[in-house]
Amino acid sequence: MQIHSPEFKQRAGDALDNANLQRALGNLRDGFPQKRAAAVARMPEFEQLRNEGRDLKNHILANLDFYLEQFEDNVIKQGGQVHWARDGEEARRAILEICRNAGAKTVTKGKSMVSEEINLNDYLEANGVKPVETDLGEYILQLREDHPSHIIAPAIHLNLDDVSDIFHKKHNRPRSEDPAELMQEAREMLRKQFVAADVGITGANFCVAETGSTIIVTNEGNGDLTQTLPRVHVVITTIEKVVPTLEDMTLFLRLLARSATGQEFTVYNTLSSGPRRPEDQDGPEEFHVVLLDNGRSEMIGSEFQEMLRCIRCSACMNHCPVYGAIGGHAYGWVYPGPMGSVLTPKLIGVDKAGHLPNASTFCGKCESVCPVKIPLPKLMRHWREREFERHLSPKGFRFGLGTWAWFARRPGLYRWVSRSSSWFLKRLGGKQGRIRSLPLGKGWTAWRDMPAPQGSTFMDQWKRHQQTQQQKNKG
Amino acid sequence: MTSSRNQILGNIRRGLQRDLLTGDALDQVRTRLREHPANTVPARSQLPQDQQIALFESMANEAAAELIELKTLEALPGTVAEFCRENGIDQLVSASDPALTALDWSGIDNLEITHRVAQAGDSASLTTSFCGIAETGTLMLLSGPHSPTTLNFLPDTHLVLLKQSQIVGAYEEAWARLRQHSDAMPRTVNMITGPSRSADIEQKLQMGAHGPKRLIILLLRD
Ligand code: SF4
User: Fold this and answer.
1) Which domains, from first to last, does chain B contain?
2) Is the separation of the CB atoms in A266 and A314 below 8 Å?
3) Are B148 and A85 an interchain contact pair (Cβ–Cβ within 8 Å)?
4) pTM score, whole prediction
5) Residues of chain A with CATH 1.10.1060.10
6) Is residue A253 pLDDT above 80, yes or no?
7) For site-directed labelling of A297, which of A360, A468, B2, B4 has its Cα 20 to 30 A away?
8) Binding site membership of A312 for ligand 1 (Cβ less than 6 Å)
9) What does the pLDDT look like over A228-240, one tens digit per residue?
10) What percent of chain A is predicted at pLDDT more than 90?
11) Is A430 left (phi over 0), alpha (psi -120 to 50) or beta?
């Protein structure tokens, strides 16, 4: 996916103006949070599971080298291969080579955000291998030459109309507006692709060190067809996804389904271990795991290490007022919402994405729903500090903060200025007490009114309060 | 030039400010892998067996799986044939599991039964299962010479035999059974909870995405 994070401000503004997008985002705001809340309410141990999930991830990260080596050993024992990739380029090349060795013309793909992270589709296409997305949402996006705007509901920014239009155009069939019919259409179209593909590429939600297995979690069953029918199965995943045992994986599966879609359990949880056995009648003959780092190993021991606990459930964005208002594309890259605001500057550079952590109201909702208790607001603040230190924050922002500091160091002047500006703003607010357009703050009032200050300044009120207290005490 | 593998592992160790794990720290992680201790197991499924069976049934129903009761294993061919007749299915791909092939299918004349892997266009499949998990009404199926994985995903309708004696409470109990069953993992372990679905169009749930549109559990009262 191309990087558009530097244009965040412009894209966020466009998103707020886009009526179709706003309609689509309504489906998100009305759906996920309620479903999660209901599922959590049915599991009295949920809070305990979250604590255990956090602690277990911390344990894994503290022993990550060991568990990765164990995982590798066990994949090889089962007859599979592991390819270590420091960055996207190495991962892409490893996958292309596997495809070439298999003589692959088309590859089917299960949903994988890591493959978006390394821009795999464009690369394969440019090298003569046709990638076919099979997750319904991803399939719609591929037809539209569009990109996911959410990590588990990739097409959440689209409405039914958009799907009807693109299917009509690309499938040469009468235009349908019935979601069930549209899904049936996609099912029929993709059947042939599943059977024809030479290589199937999936992601992995977890890698189990004990058994050398990878697991995918899906509701559609597309990932299973992707990895069972072709001759070669490639798993593209990242180093922090390893867990010690099946029991440990189980803890995260219990947290994941409930936090993500509010389901008791996702429909298909599928463990893959090595290639088909000699006596098996179906399944892939080759099993490859591409283990991508892409900057993650450098987060170990840094103030961002806690971000590596993330299990990609999407709860933080589903509950984020900023994401809910502007959607995922405004963030300009693969990972949106609070988790993306922390991860993106690390993965593509603070110069390109250092301002994403500013897109937060710091309401703390994300941290309160995160199944592994990542302190997302704290991590966003770390980025803000770094951005400021490196003089990357905008001139206006630095100037404003500087001016405020100058006045704050001169209390008499500070009080006089705040008293007079409060008087001025009150006049500006008029009878309604609301300011429609703020001088020097047009960006703020473009989307909402600013309440005009009421009464006297805080300092004046405080002084009066102190005086009354003193009098009371005397009396 | 060091390999990517060594660089990544080296980076991790540098971040952790240590070299290779040794001594007690190494023993501790090795023990975890060997003993695979359970984390918190939700109380919901820790019940006497009859209540576990009831929990399995209600959770499977909630996930939109359909249950058909079998009084005896011998009743299976007739029950399957009747289900297929009612639903206009005249072709069935069956797993070659001896538990199924040993049954008497001779009286069934409305069904063409084959034993092979699944193909695009198959309307129905019949398989056995490894166990049922009451906690969420989940089936566990293992790939093997007599149970090709494609049967679980390609056909429109998937019929699965489950004996109620195979029902356990929590996932952890299923892992324990799996470890007892064999030393090595099968190529594929499928945990299946209801039929395939998607909410990718406007977040409205539609049943029957790429996997089976219907999941029928033939529950044997053994
Ligand atoms: S940061 Fe937490 S809430 Fe957000 S996707 Fe990751 S695990 Fe889920």
Assistant:
1) 1-35 (no CATH), 41-220 (3.40.50.10420)
2) no
3) no
4) 0.90
5) 298-393
6) yes
7) A360
8) yes
9) 999 999 999 999 9
10) 68
11) left
Chain A: closest CA distance from residue B180 (Å): 14
Quick one: tokens of A350?
């603070």
A152 CB within 6 A, ligand 1: no
CB-CB under 8 Å, B43 with A302? no
Confidence of residue A389 (pLDDT cuts 50, 70, 90): confident
Q: Tell me, what's the pLDDT at B1?
A: 46
**Measured in angstroms, how far is the CA atom of residue B162 from the centroid of ligand 1?**
36
Q: How far apart are CA B54 and CA B58, in angstroms?
A: 6
Q: What is the pLDDT of residues A203-219, one digit of tens each?
A: 999 999 999 999 999 99
Q: Per the CB < 8 Å rule, is B5 touching A84?
A: yes
Ligand 1: does its nearest atom lie under 6 Å from the Cβ of A340? no
Residue B66 CB-half CA count within 13 A: 10
Residue A108 has pLDDT above 70, yes or no: yes
Mean pLDDT, all residues of chain A: 90
- Evaluate: CB of A168 within 6 angstroms of ligand 1: no
Backbone angles phi, psi at B112, to 5 degrees: -95, 115
Residue B93: beta bridge partners? B114, B125
Which CATH number does A298-393 carry? 1.10.1060.10
Closest of B93, B98, B99 to residue B116, by C-alpha: B93
**How far is A315 from chain B, CA to nearest CA, in Å?**
15
Could you report the predicted ipTM of this complex, rounded to two decimals?
0.97
Query: A458-467, pLDDT tens digit by residue?
Result: 777 778 888 8
